[in-house]
Write a structure and sequence with these properties.
single chain, about 725 residues, alpha/beta, pyruvate-formate lyase- activating enzyme
């Protein structure tokens, strides 16, 4: 029988853009002429819930319970008529379909307001008088968050905007609690989910249902979907995979999960899925499946005898967004910080530049797993081909390259390809703070559409960065962040506290460095992560190397990933959590830089050892060295016009009209003509390429004088300031 597979994303993931797993897999199956469809149940549940009909049902349920609620929840219930009458218009507004509503929202008498609106006094300062649309979206987001607070308090404590029952997935060493909840009466959200799943199955009539579980907050909903399928459509095979499965369920022993699914696959899903399709059609034996768990009797069996290799990046096909309601995603503005809100604001097409991480050595990372350790880059041409195809398909030219860390050389080559093709794209990605991201490389990335990068400074301590094997220093990270910021590219930094042996002194010193980074304007956003020791990381595999012990088993019957880390040498890391979070929140809003560090904590902390001008002293270092001869020289500006000197003048003026400015340089006549002949050859569109050494040779062949003197002079400096880059 010919197979038809239905991919679903269970509640909840981000609301502004589709999660990429189903999009990738559908594109792969397209290339092999296998019929498939996809449904984003995460979005559909949100839209059903936040509608006049959904809220009416919600309020009726809350009032029937007649439970004791907080004053805030009671206020929302009392305003239920206002919520029901405004919700449909607010959702349309957040979908970009009703922009004029911004005026009404900002007027202050349209939206009902509960506790989330308590801190809106500074919105005029944050958005300005011209930022009415963004301000309105922020207010509309607060309005939805108020409703979310009511749902989690009065109806469904597991509800969260981008996660559902996350606690169950995060602490699932045993399957008991999840199994118990799955066999309890449906929650309010669960009831909505089942109605929408039934509708999707009726519409697409699949032979197999493939559920992606990227995060702990998707696990329960995924199994709830599987439960409904097995109870109502036992002929449909249920397959589960995704990031959560790959990290948590690799040593699965509890067979009860197979009451809700039929097959569980690990790592990249393409080859296991293709093998399963062949198995369903009778063209493959079960023992020849690839990286697949199956229940046989009451025991779990793992099959991986397949000879099918994992597919190369150029064989995967182009991600396919068809079937997803792209005009219905919600662009929320959770924070006024322009960098931090990229994760929830805007419809970003997701692509990866490479499989795996080109560094792959960080000791806290899951470096033993395939998604990290198997590095395979795409070519710039293939990436651009896919970008063009996705733009044509979706009508959206925004991209989030969701790599663990984008390779610097590949990014540089991709930028050149984007410029050569004349693509108008906007993109952001994760990076490592590599020295190769020079100021000029950052200018090239900016020219190609890069608006933001996110990189790991982690513990902001050179000693701990060496222990992590991060491959960067604090000074290097400061310089690279400055290069991006100087090019007009926003910078987010991933921060970490609680790494093995980290002392209180190092924690406070890290906070001081972070304070200076924000105060200097070279970092706009950040997030503190508490270190987690996992079974797949170097710290989890060799804890003694990091002077810590494992305090929990790694052979649980269900999920195995995060381990309890016993750190006898380090400080009490948990005490720092609130202070680090509060200080960072203020720094991201451009305030409280003058607060002493101990003000953020309710216990005594050491005085920082970091000099008050540590970051500014790094930024003030001058690079007086001449550019390396093998580096490429590119001209990003427009071509010049010559205005010859008049009278007795021996100088010639060259005029330039660039996109944002007009400038001129005055040089000798023969040098002027040489420059006007050279600059077109330095265009990105000219693939021949010219290095500093090539230009030096040409300069000397034209007998134009001392090359070192020329590139140290005023005219060359002006060209460097206006589009001449050396990469």
């Amino acid at each position: 029988m010919k197979q038809k597979i239905l991919f679903i994303t269970p509640p909840f993931v981000q609301t502004n853009t589709p999660y990429s797993a189903t999009v990738y897999l559908k594109g792969f199956l397209n290339k092999r002429n296998i019929s498939s469809a996809q449904v984003d149940l995460s979005l559909e549940v949100i839209l059903a819930l936040f509608s006049s009909r959904g809220l009416s049902s919600l309020f009726n349920k809350v009032m029937k319970r007649n439970a004791h609620l907080s004053d805030n929840a009671e206020r929302i219930i009392n305003l239920r008529g206002n919520y029901v009458s405004t919700i449909d218009n607010v959702i349309l507004f957040l979908q970009g379909k009703n922009p004029v509503l911004a005026n009404l929202i900002c007027a202050g008498n349209y939206l009902p307001e509960a506790s989330r609106f308590d801190e809106t006094a500074d919105l005029e300062w944050a958005f300005g008088t011209a930022g009415i649309y963004d301000r309105a979206r922020h207010l509309a987001t607060l309005y939805l968050e108020d409703l979310s607070d009511l749902i989690s308090e009065a109806v469904d404590p597991d509800f969260g905007f981008s996660r559902y029952a996350e606690r169950l997935g995060r602490s699932a060493a045993s399957f008991d609690e999840i199994d118990g909840k799955l066999n309890s009466p449906d929650s309010f959200i669960g009831g909505i989910l089942k109605v929408l799943l039934k509708k999707a199955v009726r519409r697409f009539k699949p032979s197999a249902l493939a559920i992606s579980v990227p995060f702990p907050g998707n696990l329960y909903s995924a199994l709830k979907c599987g439960q409904w399928i097995k109870n109502n459509h036992s002929e449909i095979k249920v397959i589960m995979g995704g990031g959560y499965v790959n990290t948590e369920l690799r040593s699965l022993k509890d067979p009860r999960i197979f009451n809700y699914v039929d097959y569980i696959t690990l790592d990249d899903g393409e080859a296991p899925l293709l093998n399963l399709m062949e198995y369903f059609e009778g063209a493959r034996e079960v023992c020849d499946l690839k990286r697949t768990f199956v229940r046989a009797g009451n025991k779990i069996q793992y099959f991986n005898a397949s000879q099918t290799g994992d597919f190369h990046q150029n064989d995967l096909g182009c991600p396919d967004y068809s079937g997803l309601c792209l005009d219905k995603y919600l662009s929320l503005v959770e924070t006024v910080n322009p960098m931090h809100r990229l994760w929830s604001d805007g419809r970003w097409n997701k692509l990866t530049l490479a499989h795996g991480c080109y560094w792959g050595k960080c000791s806290f990372c899951d470096s033993s797993l395939d998604y990290i350790k198997r590095y395979e880059p795409n070519t710039p041409a293939l990436i651009c081909d896919r970008m063009e195809a996705i733009i044509k398909q979706t009508g959206q030219n925004g991209f989030h390259f969701a790599d663990e860390a984008a390779p610097p050389l590949l990014l540089k080559e991709l930028a050149l390809e984007i410029i050569r093709r004349g693509l108008t794209v906007v993109w952001w990605t994760n990076i490592r703070f590599e020295k190769s991201f020079t100021g000029d490389v950052c200018l090239l990335l900016k020219e190609a559409g890069c608006i933001a990068v996110a990189g790991g400074l982690e513990v902001a301590s050179d000693r701990l960065l060496r222990l992590i094997n991060k491959g960067v220093t604090v000074s290097q990270a400061v310089e690279v962040a400055s290069n991006f910021a100087g090019a007009g590219i926003m910078v987010h930094t991933y921060l970490m506290y609680g790494f093995p042996t980290q002392t209180a002194q190092e924690s406070i010193d890290a906070l001081e460095i972070v304070r200076q980074l924000f105060m200097s304007g070279i970092v706009q956003s950040g997030f503190w992560h508490r270190f987690a020791m996992t079974v797949h990381s170097e710290t989890g595999r060799n804890p003694e190397k990091f002077h810590v012990r494992k305090g929990s088993p790694d052979d649980n019957p269900f999920a195995n990933n995060e381990l309890l880390c016993i750190d006898r040498k380090g400080c009490d890391h948990g005490k720092f959590s609130d202070g680090l979070r509060k200080s960072l929140y203020n720094y991201m809003h451009g305030i409280a830089f003058d607060f002493p560090l101990d003000r953020w904590f309710d216990f005594d902390v050491p005085v920082t050892r970091i000099a008050p001008h540590f970051v500014s002293s790094i930024l003030s270092r001058e690079d007086n060295g001449l550019p390396c001869g093998n580096r490429s020289v590119l001209w990003l500006g427009n071509l010049p016009m010559i205005i010859r000197g008049t009278g007795k003048s021996v100088a010639t003026e060259i005029l330039f009209d660039n996109k944002q400015n007009f400038f001129s340089i005055r040089v000798k006549k023969d040098l002027a003509f040489w420059l006007c002949g050279l600059l077109p050859k330095l265009s990105v569109s000219d693939k021949r390429g010219y290095s500093v050494a090539d230009i030096k040779t040409d300069f000397k062949n034209h007998k134009l004088g001392d090359f070192e003197k020329f590139i140290s002079g005023r005219a060359f400096k002006k060209l460097r300031e206006n589009g001449l880059i050396i990469i």
